[in-house]
Amino acid sequence: MRLVAFRKRLMYQNYERINEYLHSIQADMNIEYLYIQMIQDHSSVYLFDPSSGYLTLGYKEELSERFDKLKGNERLEPTVSRTEFGWLSSAGEPVLSSDGEKCAVAFVDIDMTEIVRNTIRFTVLMVCLCILIILAAGMDISRKIKKRISRPIELLTEATHKFGNGEEGYDENNIVDLDIHTRDEIEELYHATQSMQKSIINYMDNLTRVTAEKERIGAELNVATQIQASMLPCIFPAFPDRDEMDIYATMTPAKEVGGDFYDFFMVDDRHMAIVMADVSGKGVPAALFMVIGKTLIKDHTQPGRDLGEVFTEVNNILCESNENGMFITAFEGVLDLVTGEFRYVNAGHEMPFVYRRETNTYEAYKIRAGFVLAGIEDIVYKEQKLQLNIGDKIFQYTDGVTEATDKDRQLYGMDRLDHVLNQQCLSSNPEETLKLVKADIDAFVGDNDQFDDITMLCLEYTKKMENQRLLNNC
Fold first, then answer.
1. Is 354 within 8 Å of 386 (Cβ atoms)?
2. Which H helix or E strand runs over 215?
3. What are the pLDDT digits (tens) for 187-238?
4. Where do runs of H (alpha helix) occur along 2-108?
5. Same domain as 272, residue 218
6. Rounded Cα distance, 183 and 180, in Å
7. Other C-beta atoms within 10 Å of 217: how many?
8. Is 466 in the same domain as 338?
9. Cα-trace Rg, the chain
10. What pLDDT digit, counting tens, does each position of 113-147 carry?
11. In the Cβ-directed half-sphere of 148, how many Cα atoms lie within 13 Å?
12. Tell me, what's the pLDDT at 105?
């Protein structure tokens, strides 16, 4: 009896130890139900069930459908179901004897609610972890971008801005010099910026030299303009002690030094000469050629000399020294203050307007025009004549008057000049006449630039020279 009791106690102790072991497994693995059943005929006998909290040794129940799925020694794949015990995921594993025969089945039931909760917890944890990884990666990428892209661009922008504002001057020592070695488009931009700055510095140096040269030339041109203007008679009244004539002349130069010139002078006490001319071209060469032409015409105009011979000789002299191929259109006339005879010669110049007091009209006087001066050697010029009466006038001009251009590229023209002379200048003296014509030209041109000199001269025969003056001069 004692032996039997000892065996029972030993078996109980072993059972309890196994049950505790299974309970620890259940707790460690968070298993809802863990039990082992032995199959006997059509029933199943519970051997272990630590999840119930008490021993169920020998408890029998009808075989369930789960046992039908256990064929031979195969395991029961996990299945999910809702029963009175809860929402469970169940699996079974055959327990084999030492002979390899199935003697029992171990079942495990896991609460799906806990699985789902753990899954959600794991998912949330993974999402948070991913977000942290993304943020860390983003910060690292941002730091690298700033170091590799943003910062070099900021430095390049700042340096370029300083260079563009000229804060440190335009010098090769102030070219942007940065430590940019990104080996990409930013480094290419940096080198392109350096190249551009070198080009700008070279341009600024050239511009400085050109500007200085331009200022020097401009100063010289201003001096040339002043010299040119000072060579033209500009004090009026021109002959305050003579009342036989009234004369007035103006020249409005264009922006460049031009070649227009006028002149008037007493050939002798009885004869007065007027000259109106226009040199081809602009600038200093034209001004110098103008000085030569003006001087030659005046020097060769002598009392009693034929004006055709004057222009013939002047033309030959000009042709000898005309290496630049320039030419002069010129008109010269000499008025006899006693008889009113007006001798003139024309070398390709504009036709004058003649005012007749008798008819109170201006009319373009059609004259035979010779060839320009300094064009061809040995040209023979012919002197011509017309008769002026007391109160008659001669209005002469250069092509800067008729070729004045408005904003629509329309020319002032002969018709408009004829109109202003006959509508506004009939009762005007020479000075008033020129002012009225110039005002009409200005109104026509408007804000358009003046491209040529505007030169005009008006001579009025006011009184015959008295014989007593002649006798006094003799």
1. yes
2. helix 185-231
3. 677 677 767 777 777 777 788 888 888 888 777 677 767 777 778 888 889 8
4. 2-28, 65-68
5. no
6. 8
7. 13
8. yes
9. 61
10. 777 788 888 888 999 998 999 888 888 777 766 66
11. 10
12. 79
Alpha-carbon distance 266 to 93, whole Å?
145
Domain with 190, as residue range(s), is 168-231
The number of folded domains in the chain is 3
pLDDT for the residue 54: 47
At residue 320, what is the residue type? Answer: E
187 vs 458, more confident: 458
Checking if the pLDDT of 417 tops 80, the result is yes
Residue 441's nearest CA partner among 455, 457, 427, 460 is 455
- Say which residues have a Cβ less than 8 Å from residue 375's Cβ, sequence separation at least 6: 315, 319, 327
How is residue 330 written in tokens? 């010129």
Q: Is the pLDDT of residue 175 over 90?
A: no
Boundary residue ending a domain (181, 213, 231): 231
DSSP 397-466: E-HHHHT-B-TT--B-HHHHHHHHHHHHSTT--HHHHHHHHHHHHHHHHTTSPP-S-EEEEEEEE--PPP
Say yes or no to pLDDT of 165 above 90. no
Residue that finishes a domain, picked among 231, 249, 282: 231
CA 442 to chain centre: 34
User: pTM of the predicted model, to two decimals?
Assistant: 0.60
Expressed in angstroms, the distance from the first to the final Cα of the chain is: 194
